Amino acid sequence: MLLDRIKQSLSTLSPVAIQETDYAAKGFHLDVQVNPDQVVKVAETLDTENFFIEAVSGVDWPVDDQMEVVYDFNNMAVLCRVTVRTRIKRSNPELPTISEVFPGANWHERETHDFFGIRFTGHPDLSPLLLPEDADYHPLIKETPEEPAKETKA
Fold first, then answer.
1. pTM for the complete prediction?
2. Which of 5, 36, 60, 70 shows the greatest Cβ crowding within 10 Å of its Cβ?
3. Of the candidates 55, 122, 114, the residue with the CA atom closest to the CA atom of residue 83
């Protein structure tokens, strides 16, 4: 079975965690957590099994001082969705690109860079995709104010 083969292949990479999930409840079959330096190897493993990239997105976890990059993969022949997650420090949001393995990740990584400021090292072009070229901000980074805003009376 494909799912068992994927779990076996990925386990050789010593990921942080591999968890089988209920597809009807979660929308994916396998949830894989890896270190940032493992994302390319995981992408290569999934590529050899005829997976394709559906999406790359970011999540900001300011309380944990981390950001998360979430990769969604699907198989071409058999319905088998795999979600791969990795966490990086907010102070240095950087990890390797998978665009050399999955060229379709190029624009997804650019969008994630636009909105979260995550740098994908080795990416051929992280110029803004959706934001103005002169944008000096990343709108989906959650900022926690030092003090709560004071209400003003009208």
1. 0.89
2. 60
3. 55
